[in-house]
Amino acid sequence: MAQIGIDKMSFFSPHQYIDMTELANARNEEPGKYLIGIGQTQQAVVPPTQDVVTMAVNAADQILTPAEREEIDTIIFATESGIDNSKSAAVYAQRLLGLSPYARTIEMKQACYAGTYGLMQARDYVALHPGAKVLVMASDIARYGLHTPGEVTQGAGAVAMLVTENPRILTINRDNQFMSRDVMDFWRPVYAEEALVDGKYSAEVYREFFRDLWARYKEKTGLAIDDFKAFAFHLPFTKMGLKALRDILPEADEAKQALLLTEFEASRVYNKRIGNLYTGSVYLSLYSLLENSTTLTAGDRLGIFSYGSGAEGEFYSVELQPNFRDGLVTGQMDQLFDSREYMTIPDYEENFMAGLHGATDREFDITKDPAKFVLAGLKDQQRVYLAH
């Protein structure tokens, strides 16, 4: 059977951010609660000129060649921040990216988990259609509301992944273990713009799912913690993944524990500065691990834990390929962080109330947004997307 996996990866997040120390001070909280207890230092802020579609295409546009735009025949868009209850966000992405009209386009939803399901569907599709190429995009805006307990775990961004045979970055093993259960730890009714969450309960369910799936994975595969070089976790906030990792560390000796903790730190470098991006969170963590680890080599097995509230979880492994960093965009994250604009808390609060609320026609000032693809406004209840 052909080796199938992620050939290229790319990331995008808006050009503005707030500082978590300043947010803590504005909310009369000790900064350590956010910086250490939650594990976040900065948070991406979404201007009115960006949404899940523009973020996804801004990410994907950086990795696709003209030939690949013609060859891609399936476009999978994972999000829980959809812009339409009927029309798939993938259709907008297809047009904006100049992809072949002879492609399937679909949007998937199951909280933060949908990106993983999309990735597995892409893997299985390529297995059945040799030579096929599938574009998977996971794009989201984590939004809880001002002065809410979840405010510190907001964020936004998009990960784009090209799935092919003989991939440059990694192959996806067929050892997936998954589970679902009807749990009310997080949800967003169709009438609400902000999510509802029972934070403490959700954290407990997350760790419970991980422990259950890890035990099942070991039973089904015969593998153990020593067979893994590192783990990438879904990180709604980065301390969450650390707690889950600590649950299984006693299975390893001291040297292995130290190694896994070091690799975990590499895996959360970017998430600490972006915040939560729901469906793309675990893949930003993977991206961070690939770029910031100093010890990863070809053939290393990595464990991936994906979780979506409500709830669904999946654990699987991947294997790194020779020259795996060649499938990443060189300098992408450094450029993003170096060019981001600092935003004060009052400006962030004003921005939070802006955007497309309701059906009234309006235009946005796109001159202040440096991204290639932007949302220019609303006309006749249709979103106006532009490339500039």
TrEMBL record:
Cite the GO molecular-function annotations of the record: hydroxymethylglutaryl-CoA synthase activity
Gene3D superfamilies documented for this protein = 3.40.47.10
Q: Which residues cross the membrane?
A: none
- The EC designation for this entry is 2.3.3.-
Q: Which GO terms describe its biological process?
A: acetyl-CoA metabolic process
Question: Which InterPro entries has this protein been placed in?
Answer: HMG_CoA_synt_C_dom, HMG_CoA_synth_N, HMG_CoA_synthase_prok, Thiolase-like
Q: Which residues form the active site?
A: E80 (proton donor/acceptor), C112 (acyl-thioester intermediate), H234 (proton donor/acceptor)
Q: Quote the Pfam families the UniProt record gives.
A: HMG_CoA_synt_C, HMG_CoA_synt_N
Keywords, comma-separated and alphabetical: Acyltransferase, Transferase
Its domain of life reads Bacteria
Residues holding (3S)-3-hydroxy-3-methylglutaryl-CoA: Y144, K243, N276
| Family recorded in the similarity comment | Belongs to the thiolase-like superfamily. HMG-CoA synthase family.
- Report the protein name in the record: PksG protein
Q: Which gene encodes it?
A: pksG
